[in-house]
């Protein structure tokens, strides 16, 4: 099984949808870098409903070996940068992230990636959720950016058109 390395937003949104256990069911274990732990900690301090990955026994916190290992654009946040750095240090990695620029960088570096919406599709296929439509509605209410064409494509893939 590949190293599954997760950024902040998939943890945030699955937690806020109250289906974080689905993530664990799909991948068993994930790795998060310290920057993701810090981003979630800062959000919790501001009163945002976010998980504490340190309290989850199926999450491992791992630092990238080299801070300068990744020659990335300055537009990436610390979480995305450390997630991609960890992926480059792995022989077999799958990164879970939603940020469009981070996904472009992952593709350019030949790093496999998936996002929150892909996890929802996986969860439906595995029978862990019954329907994607209400989850997409909740995601959008939480501020998740979802273009109408993407929404339609996801619902089509989920067989909910």
TrEMBL record:
This is DUF3368 domain-containing protein. InterPro entries: PIN-like_prokaryotic. The lineage of its organism: Bacteria, Pseudomonadati, Nitrospinota/Tectimicrobiota group, Candidatus Tectimicrobiota, Candidatus Entotheonellia. It comes from Entotheonella factor.
